[in-house]
Amino acid sequence: MSVAFMPPQETALDEQFAQLAAQHVAPRSQQAYDAEILDRLAWRRLAAHGLWRNGVPTQLGGNGGTWKDLATAIAGVARGSDDLGFTLSLIAHAGLIRALVIHGTDWHHQHILPALMKGAIGATALTETHGGSDVARTRTTGRRIEDGWLLNGSKDHITNAPVADRALILGRAPELGRRDITLFIVNLHSPGVRRGTPEELLGLRTSPTGAIHLDDVFLPEQAILGKPGEGLTTLYDIISFDRALYGLVAAAYLEPRLDDVLNFAHQREAFGSPIIDHQYVQGRITDIRITIETARAISLAGIDALIARAPEASLRCSIAKLVGSEGLVEAAQNLMRLQGHVGYIRGTITRDLQDALGTLIAGGTTEMQRKNILNQMLAARDNA
Ligand SMILES: Cc1cc2nc3c(=O)[nH]c(=O)nc-3n(C[C@H](O)[C@H](O)[C@H](O)COP(=O)(O)OP(=O)(O)OC[C@H]3O[C@@H](n4cnc5c(N)ncnc54)[C@H](O)[C@@H]3O)c2cc1C
């Protein structure tokens, strides 16, 4: 497998998890796809190999390092797993791990984080049936009671919801006044939590999505993540990392596909020569490479900015998401076109295309990334 240029330490982590994914995820991926389930065994095995310890400080039970290490390990899984859906389920969990480490208290670090590093499954639940782009319209409501909170509401289309153990839930606490958006960490095995049936999606069938219904769910006082009422600020930091991961994963996922199609283009002949000799074919192949390099570079630049807490982090992470998901869809189409009719027979190539389309919506649509890019540009101009 070819790997885009990376420093030696990152290459080692990427290669380690690419190999683990090739061993534990890829062989079971088609079976999981047909059954439309998340492969929990593969999930537990990657956790046992320390996937979720990357980037987590050693005093919290992690391996130390930076969030780039976790991102690199997940990119390795994307490259070796042959399973985009499984990798997107990892992204939903990765955001929660990072959020707990950065914004969590000792209570979160002691009571929530350890299980999530060992193989429990996390979800990040923002979207509700009435809309996902405008997250601040959330109707999920927390009401303070003597010894904690009672949470009511419904979340929809949430990655991992049918199987997750813990979720970050965006809601509001009206008693706080105008700034009332608040993040709640919920044990999904609590009384009052009900899950919807898994949704039937066009693709990403190894990444189950569904609803989470909350009916007077009791939460201890400590279950709030970040400051009550300041949930949006915390949330933007959390989703920025997810967005950068989408870009990085898109690049990594395409690498082995590009190797395969290059081989195909050397073997397949038309008009007396291998099709790689035809310029229009070369154009499609180079476009895939350009997507890989640009998505990867901007994603890493976004993660660097997040680590440095630099103001351009949010803008770069939105560009990473946009370039990654749009580029992935275009590349999946190119992979299909390059293989002619064979590319349209139901199988790996058509699954890639169906899976890729989901990334245009999951993690925020392209329109929302553009909106954020412009908002960030205008904010930077005002602050100059
Ligand atoms: C595979 C998959 C996994 C998902 N996983 C999760 C998850 O784990 N957690 C979670 O919270 N959600 C998840 N979602 C939901 C996803 O985040 C939302 O579907 C997405 O944010 C869009 O929300 P919506 O579907 O309600 O569309 P809407 O917000 O109703 O938007 C509809 C259309 O209008 C456009 N639009 C809206 N506002 C504007 C505007 N101001 N300017 C221009 N265009 C605009 C949108 O871009 C879109 O094209 C997932 C979705 C998918 C497909």
Would you give an account of this structure?
This protein has 384 residues and is of the alpha+beta class. The protein has three domains: 8-120, Butyryl-Coa Dehydrogenase, subunit A, domain 1, CATH 1.10.540; 123-229, Butyryl-CoA Dehydrogenase, subunit A, domain 2; 232-383, Up-down Bundle (Butyryl-CoA Dehydrogenase, subunit A, domain 3). 54% of the residues lie in helices and 15% in strands. It contains 13 helices and ten strands. The chain has helices at residues 8-24, 26-35, 40-48, 67-81, 84-103, 106-111, 113-118, 231-267, 279-307, 313-338, 340-344, 348-358, 366-383; strands at residues 122-125, 141-145, 148-159, 166-172, 181-187, 193-195, 209-220, 224-225, 269-270, 273-274. The strands form three sheets. Strands 1-4-5-8 form a four-stranded mixed sheet. A four-stranded antiparallel sheet has the order 2-3-7-6, with helices on one face. Helix 1 (8-24) runs antiparallel to helix 3 (40-48) and helix 1 (8-24) packs across helix 4. It is globular, with a radius of gyration of 21 Å. The N and C termini lie far apart (45 Å). The relative contact order is 0.11. The site of flavin-adenine dinucleotide has 22 residues, from strand 1, strand 3 and helix 13.
